[in-house]
């Protein structure tokens, strides 16, 4: 199970970089429909999120003794409900500006490697103490890997819709 979710997180981050790279600079920064972020903004949101997760993985931990280390995974599955509309917390809300899509795609690839490296051979059952997630509190490394996988898969779905709209091919 741990290996599967690590593979899923890695694949999702790699796919995000590939999706952004599949559009041109103008498309990456074009709003596809009212109320939507651009493809670059979606990727920037994930860049900020994954970067924060890497920092969290490199921070303090404590043994998880009061609950199952995967207890919050079922709560994280909400990210896979594509019909559910969510609002991003301000601290990971992307600016409204033009982004360099090539640099952003490369940064996602770098973060993918850094995320995998931060997991290293670490015990995934330990609780990360550096951040309390909204509505969830502190999570274990295992739960964080699920968060990254599910959150990235959610936004890859969003990117496919945005890019499909911009290219005239509904995803």
Please characterize this protein's 3D structure.
By secondary structure, the protein is mostly helical. It has one domain (2-167): Four Helix Bundle (Hemerythrin (Met), subunit A). 54% of the residues lie in helices and 2% in strands. The protein contains six helices and two strands. It has helices at 2-21, 25-28, 39-57, 73-76, 101-119, 141-167, and strands spanning 61-62, 127-128. A two-stranded antiparallel sheet has the order 1-2. Helix 1 (2-21) packs antiparallel against helix 5 (101-119) and helix 3 runs parallel beside helix 5 (101-119). It is elongated and about 50 Å long. It starts with a helix and ends with a helix.
**What pattern of helices and strands is seen along the backbone?**
HHHEHHEH
Shape: elongated
Architecture in CATH? Up-down Bundle
Structural class by helix and strand composition: mainly alpha
Enter the CATH topology name: Four Helix Bundle (Hemerythrin (Met), subunit A)
Q: How far apart are the first and last residues' alpha carbons, in Å?
A: 30 Å
Work out the strand percent: under 5%
Percent helix range:
40-55%
Radius of gyration: 16 Å
Strand order in the largest sheet = 1-2
Number of strands: 2
CATH superfamily grouping = dinb family like domain
Mean pLDDT over the full residue set: 94
CATH class: Mainly Alpha
What tags apply to this protein structure?
mainly alpha, elongated, 6 helices, Four Helix Bundle (Hemerythrin (Met), subunit A), 171 residues, two-stranded antiparallel sheet, 54% helix, 2 strands
Please write out the topology.
Elements: H1 2-21, H2 25-28, H3 39-57, E1 61-62, H4 73-76, H5 101-119, E2 127-128, H6 141-167
Helix pairs in contact: 1-5, 1-6, 3-5, 3-6
